[in-house]
Amino acid sequence: MKPASIELCCAGRPVARYVTRPELDPRHSPRPYLHPVTTLGGVRVTELMPEDHPHHLGAGVAVPDVAGHNFWGGRTFVRDHGPTALDNHGEQRHDGFRRSGPGGFVEELSWSAGDRVLLRETRTVATAEVGEAAWALDLTFSLTDVWGEGLSLGSPATNGRPGAAYGGFFWRAPREATAPEVFGADAAGERAVHGRRSDWVALAGEGWTLVFAGASEETRRDPWFVRAAEYPGVGSSLAHADRLVVAPGGTLVRRVVVVVADGRLDRAGATAAVREAVAA
Questions:
Q1: Model confidence pLDDT, tens digit, residues 100-109
Q2: pLDDT tens-digit profile of 150-206?
Q3: Phi and psi for 243 in degrees, rounded to 5?
Q4: pTM (2 decimals)?
């Protein structure tokens, strides 16, 4: 039986599938995800459970450390020990849609560790046309502490692994024969873009370009996590240098807009596409 899912469309064409109840090993921190995501021309731009990181699930939201619980999947980075296999994996459970249709949805989720619900999330996803050869995925997630004691969010970086501040929004792109080109609004190259704040960053592969933009002031404060040579992926860094605390009953909100384009955009083209996508 196939996992429950819905299809998203833009400009009259299917562009993504959103899987709400995946059947996954608990060690992968089961969670809803977008895959496959394609350009308007049909080029696939997400990867699911690749051999190098089988817990990478297309595009979605994942945090490696929520009060010690792993909502990212795989091993947990433990200070002074390194990556360690622990029985600490959480699960994001799809509770239902407030509304859904081919142009997007509003979803309710529970972030659970065993029988304890730590966070409740409202996730909003929408599609929009961007010119003739691109479209935009607009994703907002709101995480609210329901544990009642406040929650501390961390990353491998805050646990002692420099340069690995991943956690929040994350998009795993497909591996190709050569690594994708990486550039930002004012920098070029993986080393120059990774770990820095920028209005947007881009990956340009074989016949496709992805441009990731922080679409709110708080989101733009988060540095970007970028990989290209090791594997192609882009995400936000909720806990970059220090742990991020969600106060008791408090809510954390982030909004990311991703331009999905056929062909290879240059910096001017990416800038124009992001401006149109965020306005849309």
A1: 999 999 999 9
A2: 999 999 999 999 999 999 999 999 999 999 999 999 999 999 999 999 999 999 999
A3: -65, 150
A4: 0.97
